[in-house]
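Notes from hallway chat w/ T.B., transcribed later so I don't forget. T.B. wanted the structure written out for a chain they're using in a teaching module, and asked if we could keep both sequence and structure tokens in one place. Agreed to drop them here.
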Amino acid sequence: MPLYQLGKPNQQVFSDTLLKLAKNDRNLLVVTSDSRGSGRLVAFGNQLPAQVVEVGIAEQNLVGVAAGLAAAGKHVFAVSPACFLTARGLEQIKNDVAYSDQPVTLVGISAGISYGALGTTHHSLHDLAVLQAIHNIDIVVPADNFETQAAVEAAVTHPRPLYIRLGKKAMHHLHGEDTPFTIGKAIRVRRGDDLAFLATGETVEIAAQTADLLGERGVSADVFSVHSLRPFDEAAVLEVARRVRAIVTVEEHSVHGGLGSRVATLLMQAGVTPALHIAAIPDEYTYPGSQQEIFAHYGITPNGLAATAERLLDRVRTEVSLPA
């Protein structure tokens, strides 16, 4: 099944959706750290200047101000590049937002390796790991325009702190308009029985393309968009893990502490052990280049993931054929 047509960058859909919602809700505020341009919030600021708070390049202050506004009853979206928001502002995220239970929506823009050519300082390969280690903050990583719009709409009334992670590139549509979206519930993108790809964020599109490629080779692959790291859809992961012979997790994050680690922990604790491969950025100095070049270097491409999946299935066949 081919991908749907090419859409917009998820960051643009975020800002378009937020502007539409804010026009009908004077309590909806955006706090930015000199990131209106990169966050595609220029139109928001021009049309609703009274609903934007600009703190400058001061991510710790950004989070503190957002928490204070949320405590006063405002619906607050704190927008900043993910690499800085979840590093410089981590103490404030922990204490002012999560531990203080303020329902701020933190929006990490240009996440993962979206700023690829700018190097390691601008990569956010740690954010899912550090935020999963902090109690009381939900984590959503939309895969396409549909998931982004649905996540922003849900965020306005979400009762808990929330982190939404967004990238820069234009994304193909993966879902029909009638697809249900619930924070905490994974969405099946392809149906298959030989192996499964569990992916999150912009890598879901790559996983779907890989499944289509494998289908041409006679391999049937499930694909799930695991858009929520917390709450985590354990039931969906366990269901597919009990049905297929192998699982490949795919993410734009460090191999440590992201989706793959979450899946591996769940499966080991449940005693469900299909063959597993974590496709992520390895624990080494990051390869410099564009997002596409970095993905290609680490095999996070349709051809690269197809080869990984075929090796994994070959290993399973070999292990099954070995004498006891």
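Follow-up for T.B.: The mean pLDDT is 94. Might be a good example for the class.
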